[in-house]
Write a structure and sequence with these properties.
By secondary structure, the chain is α+β, with helices and mostly antiparallel strands. The protein is 30% helix and 27% strand. 21% of the residues are buried. The chain crosses the membrane at residues 61-78.
Length: 180
């Protein structure tokens, strides 16, 4: 079999698997106020923002985008203003555009729930109903559905929706409060 034929078969196999993937509906997860998390995905995990915090206060990620836009505007002003004076009136719009773009991304295109890390616990201390970050202090969160018994110092955690992840029982995980 030629390399080109192998590639064609691999591509066909990928797209066939993609086309036949199981359609899932998100589990019935709710916040304490009874609403569904904004960033709920079909596998039951919740896409989040809120990775930057000062103490227990999360910083809106759209403000971070605006700050980056402001820094870019200053850099553009330093480099371009002496050559194109007419552009100076447009530069203040860059932070606003960055803010609005990020807000549109996290509220409309890829909805994400605001979140706040509230504590860290070991896997052995997890309880059903805890909301936990899957990848350290940032990233998606899941609601714990079951914690398997320890085997060789490792424990498997199942989240509502069926996602499973295995950690060492001494690993520390971030408990999260979802804000919307």
């Amino acid at each position: 079999m030629t390399a080109e034929r192998e590639t064609d078969l691999a591509v066909d196999e990928f797209f066939t698997a993609f086309a036949h993937r199981r359609k899932t509906t998100p589990p019935n997860l709710t916040l304490p106020d009874g609403s569904r998390p904004l960033g709920l995905t079909p596998d039951g995990l919740v896409r989040t923002t809120g990775w930057l915090q000062f103490g227990k206060r999360p910083v809106d990620s759209a403000l971070v985008a605006a700050a980056v836009g402001l820094l870019a505007a200053v850099m553009i002003t330093i480099r371009v203003l002496p050559v194109f004076v007419g552009i100076s009136g447009l530069l203040p719009l860059l932070p606003t555009a960055c803010y609005l773009s990020w807000r549109a991304l996290t509220k409309r295109l890829l909805p994400s729930s605001g979140s706040r890390n509230v504590a860290t616990v070991t896997v052995a201390e997890l309880r059903v109903g805890d909301w936990v970050r899957l990848h350290g202090s940032i990233g998606p969160v899941g609601e714990v559905a079951a914690v398997a018994a320890e085997v060789d110092g490792r424990s498997e955690v199942e989240f509502l929706g069926g996602v499973k992840k295995e950690w060492s029982v001494q690993d520390r995980l971030h408990l999260v409060e979802l804000l919307d």
